[in-house]
## 1
Amino acid sequence: MLRRLSMSSPDRLVYMANQIGTFFRSQGHDKAVPGIADHIKKFWDPRMKRAIFAHLDAGGAGLEPHVLEALTSLKQARPTEIG
């Protein structure tokens, strides 16, 4: 049976975040990490950000290292601005 993942399910969000990370990876660590954070800040809705941050707080299983770093920096930057 095929299970459809909702847009805000942790598995779906991890997949999406890692895809963003794959896009930015070729730019090198110093550009990739802020690029990932900026993309998520600008284009993910508040529910998605809350869900990925909850996943991060639970250990962040499945997140690529540079994505994990980007999400951690985004969460710590300005919690009231990220939604």
Note: The chain has five helices and no strands.
## 2
Amino acid sequence: MPLHPDEFPIDADLAASVVRHERPEWADLPLMPAGGGTDNVMFRLGRDLLVRMPRTPGGVASLRKEREWMPRLAPGLRMRIPEPVHAGPPSDAYPVEWSVYRWIEGAPPTTDTVDDWARFGADLAGFVAELHRIDLMGAERAGDLSWYRGGGLREPESWMAPAFAASRPLVGDVLDLDRLEDWWREALALPDSSAPHVWLHGDLRPGNLLADGGRLAAVIDFGALSVGAPDAEHAAVWDLPPAARRAYWDALDLDEPTWLRARGWAIGVAISGIPYYWETFPEFVAECVARLAAILEDG
């Protein structure tokens, strides 16, 4: 089932055909599905390559950002990030751009792939600190680098009340949505961050982190790359176990207002995802519910 109203039908046969047409030297490499997120469908190509195809026309800008900025950000990061190797053009078979990257070994963080959650949280904090220290190189919060999560909490305010209302009949029996909405509004009432604008990954959910050898090994999918205030960057730590959250907080030495605004972002993003993906992406809905449950447990 499509996740979005304007989604392209994408399968392995289509991916193989566009690769074969554009890069005939890769035509004999095996191609197999490698999962997908809300914006892209992915296929592993041979041993060393990954094909990413946007689900919708709006996903193209994210790939362009990665192709422009990943080579410029990589020297400032110890962690592996996506390495674009080919820009695929639109065609009759598939009407928008697509990209090919180097394959990165690893798997999302789970109890099977991470053996020390405190160390994992510190690893993630180290990546965030490095990314936020990289010079902006003239980039500004404008155009494709002005995604809403780098702004203030008032940007998503208009759709929060409808999202809470739509979520109540869906998950109101398992989550204390009144309490979560109170916390969201408390965060909204805080002054916006006065921190300087920095580079933001924008979506550090577990699906965009790769663990290998028990530790964080790579951060992927920079489609939400933007410039802005750092508050929302910290929201995804509620997707990780408490030991990882505590280590992350300690490593970055975050003050309480920043943490409360980050919690507000964590609530807002999750509550928005529940009704939007309820029928189409139950795995993502489960992530959102688990994040909100973790926030409630933290108190």
Note: The radius of gyration is 19 Å.
## 3
Amino acid sequence: MLILTHSGTFHADDVFASVVLEAALGDVTLVRSREAEAIAAADLVFDVGGVYDPGARRYDHHMRERPLRPDGLTPYSSVGLVWRDFGRPALARLVDGLRADEVEPLWAAIDTSLVLPIDLADNGVAPVGPGHLSLLVEAFNPAWDGPQHFDEAFGDAAAFARGVVARACREAIAEIRAAALVQAAAGAAADPRILVLDRKLPWEKAVHEGGLDEALFVIYPNEGATAWYCKTVPPEPGSFGQRLGLPDAWRGLQDEAFRRASGVEDGLFCHPAGFICGARSRESTVALAREAIRLGGA
């Protein structure tokens, strides 16, 4: 399939759009041109041509009546349009072992975290500060006095973007799968205040966004399961506070001193700030959480 975007200086939206189309469509040939004959001959055109017509596979967004996101306010860039129509089939190639029920949440996560910020930056809707992804991609454009051709530089930028998309997908699907495991742990919990996970994973966002308002402590092992940790749940994501802190009498203690204070034979430590403690076994760590709840009057 022949896909086309404009020649010359490139931006994040056309670079990322080319990566998405390559993943979605497989065997594509990319042409970069502003010539009318080349545009007419292409099977799919994005970010150039002055036409927005998904049925004809024309995805420009620079017209006066530019295409808008479902909120009716936020304008699309070319990558937003391409992601909307080709992002889902692209994910099948970007993520190994992707289940059917994971496609939509993953598509939405990438749209929010990666695609939307490019849409906003490309349309001048949001400020772009140093280090913004859009500026990093634009930095691949050749210097005015450099020898590199724009098409070669576009290829370098696309290789960079390909890595960014792959990494974003890996992180997003890991978070989605972690949320499912947290919900499963909540469903199996004998006490909704204590969630026990069989491995270490990112649970904080899943607890807050999953409506687990009763959860006070999360139990999980280290990599070798030679120790288990009991960590307090913060009142909101990213907070250093605690819904229920560990007992003051435990804080800062280790080994034998902690074991005497907690009454748990294989207890290991309690952090001085009272947000995490641990023991050698799962059962003992759950016992720490139960005792903390009893002492805290929760």
Note: The two ends are 63 Å apart (CA to CA).
## 4
Amino acid sequence: MIDIRLLGPGDRARWEVLARGYKAFYRTEVADDGYEETWRRILDGREVRAFGAWADEELVGIAHYLFHATVWDAGGCYLQDLFVDEAARGRGVARALIERVADAARERGASRLYWTTKEDNAPARALYDQVARFHGFVRYDYPMG
């Protein structure tokens, strides 16, 4: 049984373990104060939101998402980070997190839910190909600094 719910103040320590795992997977470094700032924003719930997935009463997965305006429709929901502890993979945790974010997007009236992943992330893409559609877009990041 997987229980999906919003993260709360008592989830900070385990959330950071998972968040650090996510950042390590993508080889992205974040200073310690960056985790503190992100956690504050999650608890605030105005810009960034987060669900956690619990299995056997342990937090084993996280999903960070946000809503934003779009030019041509009712707005979008971006699933920015999705991570499941390696020991809990293959048990439907990621799918349950995606479905819960999709529910939140529907509740908000968003016209779409979308996310990105690395091209070579085959395990994740196998799931994504089951639950979503790939439309062939390629993402570019302009260097801002």
Note: The chain has a mean pLDDT of 96.
